[in-house]
């Protein structure tokens, strides 16, 4: 764990003007760290006056690769280094897979996957030169499996996690850590700002069943709890590849893993029969 007298860290947080990203930014500032707020509506006025000299607010659309590159360079120019990068910017689209327009599907991937990819690529040269750093990829409980009406959102988070697993192994050689953070429900405006597809009548009964399941409403958590968990995470000398936030995510991760193991075991004979090494076939004449 980091001792309280250690030098301040510099955080680069996307989507930090509100929600989970804002909570992480506040927690970092309160411990004396410096924060680069990279968001579409970034402003230092969102933070207490006593902290503003340690805040750099940059208006950035993470889907604009050149803007991301410029923001990272501005952050390094201001603070000299980056220590923790939090890819938090994201959007949520709800609807059955069949209902998505091409524009809606591409927009979901542009923000949640490509935005995080552009930021990761932009910060890596600096982290490699430093020989240290930590990238936190904010995924979701939706990355544990695809569920009715979350197909494209889950797809964007599955893509993020696949890329991040590879990135973690590549970056480790340079002393850079990568952790995939999987939050459950938190009181942010993610739901309020989400995009919904135009419903197809064929899915009416399924939607009615989902509404019955959700009838009790959401009982989500204070984002500050997630921020505290992430402070503990970055203080660790051996950070994990994945960190589940919340009992719902933790329990679902175990349940999904158990079901997958059972299915793989049940179909083991078929799986193994599908592989048998043979010499390279002769080219067709």
In words, what does this structure look like?
This protein has 285 residues and is of the alpha/beta class. The chain has one domain: NAD(P)-binding Rossmann-like Domain (Rossmann fold, 3-Layer(aba) Sandwich), CATH 3.40.50. 45% of the residues lie in helices and 15% in strands. The chain has helices at residues 19-30, 65-79, 102-130, 151-172, 204-213, 223-235, 247-266, 268-273, and strands spanning 10-14, 34-39, 55-59, 84-87, 93-94, 133-138, 176-183, 195-196, 242-245. The strands form 2 sheets. It has a 7-stranded parallel beta sheet, with helices on both faces. Helix 1 crosses helix 6, helix 2 (65-79) runs parallel beside helix 3 and helix 3 runs parallel beside helix 4. Residues 1-5 have low confidence and may be disordered.
Fold blueprint:
Elements: E1 10-14, H1 19-30, E2 34-39, E3 55-59, H2 65-79, E4 84-87, E5 93-94, H3 102-130, E6 133-138, H4 151-172, E7 176-183, E8 195-196, H5 204-213, H6 223-235, E9 242-245, H7 247-266, H8 268-273
Parallel strand pairs: 1-2, 1-4, 2-3, 4-6, 5-8, 6-7, 7-9
Helix pairs in contact: 1-6, 2-3, 3-4
Number of strands: 9
The strands making up the biggest β-sheet line up spatially as 3-2-1-4-6-7-9
The CATH top-level class label: Alpha Beta
Q: Taking all residues together, what is the mean pLDDT?
A: 91
| CATH topology description | Rossmann fold
- Unreliable stretches: 1-5
């Amino acid at each position: 764990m980091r001792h309280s007298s250690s030098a301040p860290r510099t955080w680069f947080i996307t989507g930090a003007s509100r929600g989970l990203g804002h909570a992480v930014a506040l927690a970092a500032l309160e411990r004396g760290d410096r924060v680069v707020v990279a968001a579409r509506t970034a402003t230092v006025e969102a933070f207490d006056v006593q902290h503003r000299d340690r805040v750099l607010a940059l208006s950035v659309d993470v889907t604009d690769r050149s803007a991301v590159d410029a923001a990272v360079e501005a952050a390094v120019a201001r603070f000299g280094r980056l220590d923790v990068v939090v890819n938090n910017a994201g959007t949520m689209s709800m609807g059955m897979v069949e209902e998505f327009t091409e524009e809606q599907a591409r927009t979901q991937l542009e923000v949640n996957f490509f935005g995080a990819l552009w930021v990761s690529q932009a910060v890596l040269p600096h982290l490699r030169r430093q020989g240290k750093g930590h990238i936190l990829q904010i995924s979701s409980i939706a990355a544990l499996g695809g569920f009715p009406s979350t197909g494209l959102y889950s797809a964007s988070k599955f893509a993020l996690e696949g890329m991040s697993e590879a990135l973690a192994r590549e970056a480790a050689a340079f002393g850079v850590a990568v952790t995939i953070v999987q939050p459950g429900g938190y009181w942010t405006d993610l739901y309020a700002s989400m995009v919904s597809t135009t419903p197809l009548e064929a899915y009416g009964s399924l939607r009615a069943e989902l509404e019955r399941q959700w009838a009790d409403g959401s009982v989500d958590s204070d984002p500050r709890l997630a921020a505290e968990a992430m402070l503990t995470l970055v203080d660790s000398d051996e950070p994990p590849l994945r960190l589940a936030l919340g009992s719902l995510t933790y329990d679902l991760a175990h349940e999904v893993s158990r079901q997958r193991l059972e299915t793989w075991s049940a179909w083991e004979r078929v799986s193994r029969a599908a592989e048998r090494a043979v010499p390279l076939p002769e080219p067709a004449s």
